[in-house]
Design goal:
The complex is a heterodimer of chains A (about 300) and B (about 120). With about 300 residues, chain A is of the alpha/beta class. In chain A, about 40% of the residues lie in helices and about 15% in strands. Chain A has helices spanning about 5-10, 25-35, 60-65, 85-95, 125-135, 170-180, 190-205, 220-230, 235-245, 250-265, 285-290; strands spanning about 15-20, 45, 70-75, 100-105, 155-160, 180-185, 210, 215, 270-275. In chain A, strands 7-6-5-4-3-2-1-9-8 form a nine-stranded parallel sheet. In chain A, helix 2 links the parallel strand 1 and strand 2 (about 45). In chain A, helix 3 packs parallel to helix 4 (about 85-95) and helix 5 runs parallel beside helix 6. The radius of gyration of chain A is 18 Å and the shape is globular. Chain B has one domain (about 5-125). Chain B has helices at about 5-15, 65-75, 80-85, 100-105, 115-124. The mean pLDDT of chain B is about 90. Classes of the chains: A alpha/beta (about 300), B mainly alpha (about 120). At the A-B interface, helix 5 and helix 6 of A face helix 2 and helix 5 of B.
C-alpha cells in the first residue's frame, strides 16, 4: 500500500506537492527536486504535460521519482491520449509499482506553446477515473483480463471556484461514483467558495479526503498572470493589490499563502494540502515549518 | 450516411447544432448538445470555466455545460431528464458516429458499453 493511502486510511493529515517538469536527460534535476521535497511531502504528483506544454512523460517521471524515494501520484490527463493510451499509462505505471493515480480532464491545447496541436479528449475526467477503476477491477475496458490487477488508489481533481459553483459538489459525487478515493482541488482564491464547496461535499454525505491546493508565489505578478491567463482561476483584485502594494511584496505573498493554507486546513473534511511551488526558494521549508510539520529524515 | 441519419441531421442540425455522435443525450443536458463543447466532454463542465461562465477554449462562447446546467433548471423538462444531468456517461462509441441516434435508441445499440466498464460498475 502506498504511503499516501496508508496515511489517509489511518486518518492522518497528508501533504502532497507538484513535481517540477523535467525536460530531456536531466536525472540530476530529478534527484535535486526529490531531495528538496522528500523531507516534507507524503506523496508527489507527476504531472502529464502541464499547461499543455510537452515535457518528459508522466510515467517516466513517476518511475524516476520512485527511484529517488518519493511516493508518486501519477497524473493522467485526457487532452493528449485516447482511451488506449490512458490504459497503457496506467498499466505501465502499475508495472513499476506506481499505484496512486489522479485522473483529470486536463486543460486545452490552447493553453500551451503548441496550440496548433490536435486535442484528443476521447474521454473525460470522470470516465478516466472509471477507467482506472476498471483496471483495478482486473480488466481493460474491453474486458480483457489483467493479472495481477493493479491495486490503484484513485484520485480525482475538482475546481471548487469555477462556475457553475452550485454544481461542483454534485460533480464530486459523480467522480466518487466513477471510483475516486481521494480528491485534490485546483487552487481557489475565494475562501468563501472553498468553504461552501467543502461543506457541501460533507453535507452530501461524502467522506472522500479533500486536499486543496496552495501556490507559493513570489509577488503580485504571478497572481495577476494566473488571474488573466489561466481559465478557471479567478483572483479578487483586492488580493492581488494587497500583495502588490505591500512594502515587501514577497513577504506579503508568503503571508497570503500561509493564511490560505491555515484556512484550508481548518475546514472539516480537508485532510491535507497540495503545494505547488513557483518560488523555488527557502519559503517552502518555512511554510511547512509554520504549518507545524517536521521534516522526515 | 443512411437515410435515417440524413433525416435526423436535417432536424437536429439546425436546432441543436447536432454533430451526429450517434449516441444522443440531449434530453439529459437541458437540450444542449455536449458534442459542441470544444473538448467534446460527455461529463462536463471541466475546471476551466471562466468567471463569467464562458468556455476555456473559446472565450467568446458560453460554456456548453454551464448552459446545459442552467437549462436543466429552467426548461420545462421531465424531472427524470433533469436528474440525469449528473449521470456518469460512458465513453462514446466512436463506431456510431454518423449513424442515426434514433435508430440506435430503438435498437438499444447506444446503451451498449465496453464489458470492462460494465463489470467495474457492478463490482466496483
Amino acid at each position: 500500500m502506498s504511503r499516501l493511502r496508508s496515511l489517509l486510511e489511518a486518518g492522518e493529515q497528508v501533504f502532497t506537492a507538484e513535481f517540477p517538469v523535467i525536460d530531456g536527460a536531466n536525472m540530476d534535476k530529478v534527484a535535486r527536486a526529490a531531495d528538496r521535497l522528500r523531507p516534507w511531502f507524503d506523496a508527489v504528483n507527476a504531472t502529464d504535460n502541464p499547461a499543455a506544454n510537452a515535457h518528459a512523460s508522466n510515467v517516466a517521471v513517476a518511475i524516476a521519482m520512485k527511484m529517488h524515494g518519493l511516493d508518486p501520484i501519477l497524473q493522467v490527463v485526457c487532452r493528449d491520449k485516447n482511451r488506449l493510451a490512458i490504459q497503457a499509462d496506467l498499466s505501465g505505471a502499475a508495472l513499476h509499482g506506481i499505484v496512486n493515480v489522479a485522473m483529470l480532464t486536463g486543460d486545452d491545447v490552447t493553453a500551451g506553446d503548441e496550440p496548433e496541436t490536435r486535442r484528443v479528449f476521447d474521454v473525460d475526467g470522470p470516465i478516466a477515473v472509471r477507467i482506472a477503476r476498471t483496471l483495478r477491477n482486473g480488466t481493460y475496458l474491453s474486458g480483457r483480463k489483467i493479472n495481477p490487477a493493479p491495486d490503484f488508489f484513485i484520485g480525482a481533481v475538482e475546481n471548487p471556484g469555477a462556475p457553475p459553483l452550485e454544481y461542483r459538489v454534485q460533480r464530486v459525487g459523480k467522480k466518487i461514483e466513477a471510483g475516486a478515493q481521494f480528491l485534490q482541488l485546483q487552487i481557489c482564491y475565494h475562501p468563501d467558495r472553498l468553504e461552501r464547496f467543502v461543506a457541501g461535499v460533507l453535507a452530501a454525505g461524502h467522506s472522500i479526503p479533500i486536499i486543496p491546493t496552495i501556490v507559493l508565489v513570489k509577488g503580485a505578478r504571478p497572481l495577476q498572470f494566473m488571474h488573466d491567463k489561466v481559465p478557471g482561476i479567478d483572483i479578487p483584485q483586492g488580493t492581488i493589490d494587497r500583495v502588490a502594494n505591500a512594502a515587501d511584496p514577497a513577504e506579503a505573498a508568503y503571508q497570503m499563502v500561509l493564511e490560505q493554507a491555515q484556512f484550508a486546513l481548518s475546514l472539516p473534511g480537508v485532510r491535507g494540502l497540495h503545494v505547488t511551488d513557483f518560488r523555488n526558494d527557502d519559503t517552502l521549508g518555512r511554510l511547512m515549518t509554520d504549518l507545524g510539520r517536521t521534516p522526515r529524515q | 450516411m443512411g437515410i435515417g441519419a440524413k433525416l435526423e441531421h436535417m432536424v437536429k442540425g439546425p436546432v441543436w447544432d447536432c454533430r451526429m455522435c450517434g449516441t444522443c443525450v440531449l434530453h439529459s443536458t437541458g437540450m444542449t448538445c455536449p458534442m459542441t463543447c470544444p473538448k467534446t466532454l460527455r461529463n462536463g463542465p471541466c475546471g476551466g470555466v471562466r468567471e463569467n461562465g464562458h468556455c476555456e477554449v473559446k472565450p467568446e462562447m458560453m460554456c456548453v455545460w454551464t448552459k446545459a446546467y442552467g437549462r436543466t433548471q429552467t426548461l420545462p423538462l421531465p424531472k427524470v431528464w433533469r436528474e440525469e444531468y449528473n449521470d456518469l456517461r460512458p465513453p462514446l462509441d466512436n463506431q456510431l458516429r454518423g449513424t442515426s441516434s434514433w435508430s440506435n435508441l430503438f435498437s438499444g445499440r447506444d446503451r451498449r458499453v465496453p464489458a470492462g466498464w460494465q463489470a467495474a460498475e457492478v463490482e466496483g
